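Lab notebook, bench 4. The sequencing result for the construct came back, and we need a structural model before the next group meeting so we can plan mutations. Quick request posted to the team channel:

Model the 3D structure of this chain.
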Amino acid sequence: MAKKKEIINATFHNNVVVSEDSDIARELYNQSRFGDVHNNRVELSLIEAMYLIEKEKIVVLDGRKKPIDTEKFLKRAKTVEKNIWTRYKVFKNMRDRGYIVKTALKFGADFRVYDRGIKPGEDHAKWVLYPVHESEVNTWYEFAAKNRVAHSTKKRLLIGIVDSEGDVTYYEIKWTRP
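Done. Here's the predicted structure in token form:
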């Protein structure tokens, strides 16, 4: 007999999604490092929640305890974060490849990425990652600032460029002195 798939209920709270207080939610955190645990609940970023909705691991409920469909969730998330589609495509691609991706706002970057098999707290992130849509324009000053952030945090700089089909190409940039 097939084991019933357990789905975690969660709700939208301001700019994050918060899970129910359950062992399965905390186990998801322990195994895969999605979100952060606060008061026995897992607090997920909007991008983490989108990923887990797509993977059928969580269901986000509205104020009346009715499931919010993916389209409605994305519409609401876009009001909080305008370039969520580009960021999500890069996040999803890295997660599907087996990397743990966490926010890097305190570093001044979009994400920090841990090498495969490494969990936050076991070692430091290997990269800072900036998702960029192929149609975006960055100045040399913006590019240099990204490179400085990576260098000052002792991480490698990774740029994830998303094309109009949603495919991602990565470029690793290294700081060198002639």
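The chain has a mean pLDDT of 90.
Will bring this to the meeting.
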